[in-house]
Amino acid sequence: MALSIGIVGLPNAGKSTLFNALTKNDVLAANYPFATIEPNVGVVGVPDSRLDKLAEIFGSAKILPATVQFVDIAGIVRGASEGEGMGNAFLSHIRESDAICQVTRVFRDEDVTHVDGKVDPGSDIETISTELILADLQTVEKAVPRLEKESRKDKELVAQLEEARKAQTALESGTGVLNAGLDLALLRDLHLLTAKRFLFVFNCDADELADEALKQKMRDLVAPAEAVFLDAKSEAELVELGDDEEAEAMRAEMLAEMGVEEPGLDALARVGFATLGLQTYLTAGPKEARAWTIKQGATAPEAAGVIHTDFQKGFIKAEIVSFDDLVAAGSMNDAKAAGKVRMEGKDYVMADGDVVEFRFNV
Ligand SMILES: Nc1ncnc2c1ncn2[C@@H]1O[C@H](COP(=O)(O)OP(=O)(O)OP(=O)(O)O)[C@@H](O)[C@H]1O
């Protein structure tokens, strides 16, 4: 289950800078893989220090983190739905994404032009949100006549048609689909952008990152959606440093100077996971230490199914120790001796950071 996040924003908001930082981010640990599928699609390993620890305990040869796929698209301008700027056809590249990350410029550098002549995060968010609503409206306006025709023959489509009509009404009134109280399952085939969850990246300069009052204002703008604050340009520089010890020390120093505890990219991956209601569980052995992505609330057999459908079908039980207990014990055997390793059955609801071995029948 690769989580996919589409990046949107005005031109010059810092999307490509952020995307480049994300996709070159194989320095956080040489083991975190990164692959470019297409020039604008990057798969990024979610940094997870627990994996390093597991690899140490189990002598794992490889570390395989959970992954997030980021899709970068061109900037959207006001009027894109009517063909302004580069239009909005390229929004189709993010129709399949699980979530949308809106990058908003807060940094004030006068050398970087702003399409509207001034830096105003609230107004920029409004512009992008409006264009996404208009893009969805175009999709729905095409779908409704098609569904009207098809539902005459196929009665199962009647419910979809009704819901598409309701979505049209909501979009016409300027409301995104996610919060319009609609049955999203019936609208799934339309891949509407405003049916997705949103998170917001505020691209700040160093002073702004330290300005708690400003950050609170930005949070209030987008609540209940999550806000991540980072300086895309500095993040890109951090990533360029390399991954030797000296670079590591320099990175720590730069982060301290920026007054932040974790690199913004880590925060983005973490918040992206949370926004989608995802969590990870862990497996480890001599071959690899690995993080697997599951929905919060997933049961043990569902978690097993992420590794292989056979694991789910033939699920017997799961041997589970929580990461913290395992680390405290120092080894699997010591954790067992301390009574920290549990046998869980098919109703067990997974917790984040469970270290698991599944027993199954094939
Ligand atoms: N936090 C920041 N502080 C200062 N300058 C920044 C910051 N983030 C990005 N920039 C600069 O802003 C400019 C625009 O950034 P970038 O090209 O990433 O924007 P974009 O959103 O991808 O634009 P487009 O949609 O036109 O491709 C670049 O020169 C970049 O170095």
TrEMBL record:
Pfam families: MMR_HSR1, YchF-GTPase_C. Residues 277-360 form the TGS domain. It comes from the Bacteria. InterPro entries: ATPase_YchF/OLA1, Beta-grasp_dom_sf, G_OBG, GTP-bd, P-loop_NTPase, TGS, TGS-like, TGS-like_dom_sf. One of its GO terms (cellular component) is cytoplasm. ATP binds at N12, A13, G14, K15, S16, T17. GO terms for molecular function: ATP binding; ATP hydrolysis activity; GTP binding; metal ion binding; ribosomal large subunit binding. Residues 3-250 form the OBG-type G domain. The keyword Phosphoprotein does not apply. Keywords: ATP-binding, Magnesium, Metal-binding, Nucleotide-binding. Its cofactor is Mg(2+). Transmembrane segments: none annotated. Belongs to the TRAFAC class OBG-HflX-like GTPase superfamily. OBG GTPase family. YchF/OLA1 subfamily. ATPase that binds to both the 70S ribosome and the 50S ribosomal subunit in a nucleotide-independent manner. This is Ribosome-binding ATPase YchF. It comes from Aeromicrobium erythreum. The gene is ychF.
